[in-house]
Amino acid sequence: MAETKLLFTPGPLNTSATVKAAMMRDLGSRDGEFVMTVREIRARLLRLGGARSADGTCEYECVLMQGSGTFGIESVISSAVHSEGKLLVLINGAYGRRIAQMARVHGIETETLDTPENRKVSANAVAERLAASTDISHVAVVHCETTTGIVNPIEGIGAVVEDAGAVYIVDAMSSFGAIPVDLSSARIDFLISSANKCIQGVPGFAFVLARRSKLLEARGRARTLSLDLHAQWAGLESDGQFRFTPPTHALLAFHQALLELEAEGGPAGRATRYRANQTALMSGMTEMGFEPYLAPEDQSFIITAFRYPRGPRFSFDNLYQRLSQMGFIIYPGKLTTEPCFRIGTIGHLSPPDITALLEAMGRVLEEMGVTPGVRAAH
Amino acid sequence: MAETKLLFTPGPLNTSATVKAAMMRDLGSRDGEFVMTVREIRARLLRLGGARSADGTCEYECVLMQGSGTFGIESVISSAVHSEGKLLVLINGAYGRRIAQMARVHGIETETLDTPENRKVSANAVAERLAASTDISHVAVVHCETTTGIVNPIEGIGAVVEDAGAVYIVDAMSSFGAIPVDLSSARIDFLISSANKCIQGVPGFAFVLARRSKLLEARGRARTLSLDLHAQWAGLESDGQFRFTPPTHALLAFHQALLELEAEGGPAGRATRYRANQTALMSGMTEMGFEPYLAPEDQSFIITAFRYPRGPRFSFDNLYQRLSQMGFIIYPGKLTTEPCFRIGTIGHLSPPDITALLEAMGRVLEEMGVTPGVRAAH
Q1: B249 vs A contacts (CB less than 8 Å)
Q2: How many CB atoms lie within 10 A of CB B295?
Q3: pLDDT digits (tens, 9 = 90+) for B115-168
């Protein structure tokens, strides 16, 4: 069997051997043990979002949705926004644009607030827009835009969205599990993330943490059968089963991944490792002469975009292929404005893996005759 | 680690240890090896559908879609039927009703042709309806209705649908890979199945075999982003990658499952084993006094519905729980008219597994004091 490569991407990521080993069983989707596993996953996800209160009540619900993270987001957008609603999408990267695109496919009236890709969305700008466009009923933002790795201020934005009386939707795909989020204090109504990101499961489903009152309002609003968020929740609540076949193996892996996240100290513990990864990466890459795209104060520990080195000898495809042959998978860029490539620092990776990548990168650059940061000789 | 139970269900099913072992790797979703694996899966699925011609051209395309089988069906229904189209759904069970339900969610004008659950859909009845309702543009039918295990005559129906000039959609979820299908001779335009049925992969995605000319007509018609069949195909064709994160592990398992299907002699070889399973089951169950729901000539080797035994001592929940504790998972009924339970005979199961189930069933009935086929003493 071919070896597993190290994945320096925004996902799917490397997972632990024990997470993968949890998939070595076939469970029936209506089996009691599977139903219990799903119930525990949902409860643990709610706790990760801080969705509990001292008196034992909880304002939030957890819904699991088959498919990729995008399916989860489309489930929320196409279920939560009513036919007379209007969505404002805050955009500073490709994933914000995707939300606006899917809303338009569903015929949802949509406005965008566009921010340059190297700047965070400004809560003040959101407040101004909400004051000007008083018919906006829903606001959506991406927490960590993996286009650049920038992290938007979801708490500050949440406060102004709440002041305007709008429903607040946060795409926390690449951040949840590593960047601590408190649903209540960030005034989040719907948060979406997926199995194969910072919780370090395998791909196969997304999950939604939803304020119960807003979820209940979504009843009968959905524009699809498969992605009907309220119906999916009602099904899980009624007998603990999915309406349609769940990815049983991916759910078993995810349950194990949640236990391992807890063992690492939860999101705070995981953030410590990811931050160490990114610090090692940034140090080594800048030493080699690479220039990060974002200003240091805007850079997260999730993924880092680096500008292409100057000079004709650099070829990203060449770099990618050589590194891949050595067992390291890096990621292409997705910026609209300038050529970059990206290196993720999440998943089952530690600083020694970063050191190995940096050594390989150095060797490949030497073979290519590229010295980042130095202008071509002629 | 708890043991794997034997799953006598319509899916998810038992898979081989080698299929599960193929998931013990993390591949990047843009990695060359993964892209090659996806390409080979698509080519093999087309060949399974007989979609090739002597001169090397092929009229069909294969699209993989994240999510359960229902997601794949919704992808076809919500992408293929245009806004002025009208869908006729041929219904003799729960899965036909589900297709009509999803079409209505999308606002698609829908007629149904309802056949009793213990009868096959009649091609003549379809012809009559198509002659009466000349505005029908699309016809959908379920190949094997797992509600009962009945197999509808998709070739005969295909001929009358073609005569009427309508587009023909076949839900072959529970049959594809075990009941041989020839796309061209059955005049199928869209066939849908999923990873975790007779090909014996793990759940996580569905696949669609589509006549290229009809797939191209679906461009821009989709009512969703995630389930846009044409866009999904165009993405896979352009660079071999999924538009949105694929279930990489489930795809690796599926590739291995396709190799194992070929090693078993393809659908014909697999049908031989499944038929032996069902023959052993039917023989043992009728010997115990159980009465199958379908007439013998309508019964398939996929799944069998049995009527509840008479008398007050029988409890399906009790039977289910006791068998589950012994390591055997059977399946509840889904009939609208009378209480039945179901036993599937597909997946990584052989006649000795059926014998073991029958022995366990006999012991449980004895413990329950139930003698099927014998009326209660008072």
Answers
A1: 20, 23, 202-204, 249-250, 253
A2: 10
A3: 999 999 999 999 999 999 999 999 999 999 999 999 999 999 999 999 999 999
The pLDDT score that the predictor gives to residue B283 is: 98
User: Has residue A107 got a pLDDT over 70?
Assistant: yes
Residue B1 reports pLDDT greater than 60: no
Q: Do B2 and A33 touch (CB under 8 A)?
A: yes
Interatomic CA distance for residues B131 and B133, integer angstroms? 6
Q: How far is CA B337 from the centre of its chain?
A: 22
Handedness of CA B110, B115, B117, B120 (dihedral sign): negative
Question: Does the pLDDT at position A101 exceed 60?
Answer: yes
Give the ranges where chain B is alpha helix by DSSP (H). 17-21, 32-48, 69-80, 94-105, 123-132, 154-163, 212-217, 229-239, 248-263, 266-288, 316-325, 351-368
Work out the minimum CA distance from B317 to partner chain A, whole angstroms: 12
State the average pLDDT over residues A322-326.
97
Check CB contact under 8 Å for A70 and B245. Answer: yes
CB-CB under 8 Å, A30 with B9 = yes
Residue A211 corresponds to which tokens in the numbers above? 């304020």
Asked if A203 and B249 come within 8 Å (Cβ–Cβ), the reply is yes
The span from the CA of B194 to the CA of B201, in Å, is 9
Residue-by-residue DSSP string for A107-131: T-EEEEEE--TTSPPPHHHHHHHHH
From residue B266, give the alpha-carbon distance in Å to each of A64, A138, B65, B101, B269: 35, 51, 23, 34, 5
Per DSSP, the three-state class of B88 is strand
Between the alpha carbon of residue A49 and those of residues B153, B309, B377, the distances in Å are 51, 49, 58
Q: Which chain A residues have a beta carbon less than 8 Å from that of B25?
A: 1-2, 4, 20
Cβ neighbours of residue A317 closer than 8 Å, sequence gap 6 or more? none
